[in-house]
Each structure stands twice: as C-alpha cells, then as structure tokens.
Design a protein that fits this description.
Elements lengths: L3 H10 L3 H23 L2 H17 L10 H19 L18 H19 L3 H12 L4 H8 L3 H29 L1
Helix pairs in contact: 1-2, 2-3, 2-4, 3-4, 4-6, 4-7, 5-8, 6-7, 6-8, 7-8
C-alpha cells in the first residue's frame, strides 16, 4: 500500500502541479532544516531546499515508490548540500537560529550563544559525510537504514560515520562540558 506522499508523487509524475504543491507544503520545513544544519546559512538553506524540490519535480517521471517519500527527499536534499559543500567551505551550525527568550538575562543568553557557537564550530570541523550522517540521524531522527539510503552507502558505513563523528565531537566539546560541570 502506498503512502499519501508516494501517491502525490505519482500524481506529480502525471503532471499534477497541485499535488506537487501539496508535497512542497508538507515537507518544506524538513527540507529547509536539513539544508540549514548542513549549510549553516538560512538563505542558502532556502535556496538548497528549493533546488532539491526542483530536482524532485524534474525527476518525477522516474520516481519509483520503493522508500518513504521523506527518505527520498532527504536523499535529494543531502546530496544537493554535499555538492554545495564540495564547491565551497560552509559555516556549520548545530541548531536553528535561537529564539529570543525574554525570561533569561543577557548573561545567560550570551552563555547559550557562546555554547552554540562552540558546538557549531565543532560540527563545522566534521568531514561533510560525517556531518550529513549526524544531521540526518540525530537532528532529523532518521534510522540507520534511512541515513544509508540518503547517503548512498551501507548501514555499516553509517555506523562508522556516526561513531567517528560522535568521537570527534566528544573530543572537541570535552572542555565545554567540563566548564558546564564546574559552573552547574
């Protein structure tokens, strides 16, 4: 049985622009989040998400509903971002832009901002495929199989990418955690 997204994608293959609009509306935020976490720039993430949807639209006639549409979307967005990363060195961040929390004082907000910056720098130091694996697994909640499908590799390769990425992040952020323990 096909999911609603897969059915919409098959309708897009038949030229149904309204079905494509529905898919974009349903998955715009997911595509943007993945792109933002990989590229670190809101405007560039918006462009990358739009380009990914354009690629999906152009390939609609070749779409085979063998995996969940979200997995297919993540694969297209991730590969597009990896291509962009190869073309230039991006600035990585680990989270979406922070919302202003009126309940915190300026010192607490500054501390949170500094921690986020250190985390972003640590993630920036990861090689692109490790970065993609970390984003898709930890931030987007994909399974190992879905990450593997998105990256075009085996689940064993995903395990290795995540292990190396986590190890590098733990080494890089060890000082941050020690500071937090002393002050907390």
């Amino acid at each position: 049985m096909r999911s609603e997204d897969q059915q919409l994608m098959l309708q897009v293959a038949d030229g149904d622009l309204e079905a494509f609009g529905d898919l974009v509306d349903r998955h715009r935020q997911t595509a943007w989040r993945v792109a933002y976490r990989m590229l670190g720039d809101a405007a560039e993430a918006e462009d990358a998400a739009q380009q990914a949807f354009l690629k999906i639209f152009e390939a609609a006639g070749r779409y085979e509903p063998t995996a969940a549409f979200k997995t297919y979307l993540n694969r297209v967005v991730t590969r597009h971002c990896l291509d962009r990363i190869e073309k230039k060195k991006p600035v990585y961040v680990d989270e979406l832009p922070p919302r202003r929390d009126e309940g915190r004082g300026p010192g607490a907000r500054l501390e949170v901002r500094q921690k986020r910056q250190k985390i972003g720098e640590a993630i920036e130091a990861l090689p692109p495929r490790q970065r993609a694996a970390v984003v898709l697994y930890h931030f987007e909640g994909l399974s190992y199989a879905e990450v593997a499908d998105s990256l075009g590799c085996s689940t064993k390769a995903v395990e290795r990418l995540l292990a190396r990425g986590r190890g590098a992040l733990a080494d890089e952020l060890e000082g941050l955690m020690e500071i937090e323990e002393k002050t907390g």
